[in-house]
Design brief:
3-stranded mixed beta sheet; binds zinc ion
Length: about 230
């Protein structure tokens, strides 16, 4: 069975359990991992991120079940363990991270800026015991200085993107360190696309950063937001 057939069979089989007798699915080259659907009575159509293309059958079925249960508005749940294990394996990152990077436009694709090296920022955070070193992590500056969103990350792809607005001799490295730390907290929480982004536990981790108040003051002064 080829991968498109497997995708369709998984959604069709699981769909029957939820009362859908006409179900189709196809892969889409979304930049971010995403599943979109259209549905009406007994009928549903899915666009699934092509990052799932080579997933084994049990992972496909687990994904389909989570989505149908979400549509049926059952209790919120994350994807099942077998899917999360598959998504967080080194093999997945090795294959899909370069693909993700090639789809993201506004990136320099390097952590080394003109004035600030984000690898050093990462090393500082590891040395301070604020994060664990992850060999799969990829850090990059944006090409254009984004001011609406100064930090961004893909938890799934283990990519952290920092706005080049901080790659300047007039801005203390404390700021890029802090923004990087913020994004690394997202990564440490793991892939949970249906979960809360900035919950209470997130903020308590954020407060572990020793110069948090100073960094927040700076962000405010520069009219930048995380
Ligand atoms: Zn955040």
């Amino acid at each position: 069975m080829d991968t498109v057939e497997l995708l369709n069979e998984s959604f069709r089989t699981i769909g029957m359990n939820y009362g859908y007798d006409s179900v189709t699915a196809e892969y889409c080259e979304f930049k971010e991992f995403k599943i979109k659907w259209r549905r009406s009575c007994g009928w549903a159509e899915f666009d699934v991120s092509d990052y799932m293309m080579d997933a084994p059958p049990e992972v496909m079925r687990g994904m389909a079940d989570t989505i149908f249960s979400k549509i049926a508005r059952k209790v919120r749940k994350n994807y099942p363990k077998e899917m999360l294990d598959w998504l967080t394996a080194d093999e997945f990152i090795e294959k899909k991270q370069p693909l993700y990077m090639s789809r993201a436009r506004n990136l320099t694709r390097t952590a080394v800026g003109e004035h600030v090296d984000l690898n050093e920022a990462y090393r500082r955070l590891v040395d301070m015991g604020l994060t664990n070193f992850d060999k799969n992590l990829r850090i990059t500056w944006t090409r254009q200085p984004n001011t609406h969103r100064v930090g961004y990350c893909s938890v799934l792809m283990k990519v952290v993107i920092i706005s080049s607005v901080f790659d300047s001799p007039s801005i203390p490295t404390l700021l890029s360190d802090y923004v990087l730390y913020h994004e690394l907290i997202h990564l440490s929480k793991g892939f949970d696309p249906f979960g809360q982004r900035h919950g209470i536990d997130f903020h308590s981790l954020e407060r572990m950063y020793p110069k948090r108040e100073e960094a927040e003051e700076w962000l405010k002064r520069l009219h930048l937001r995380l």
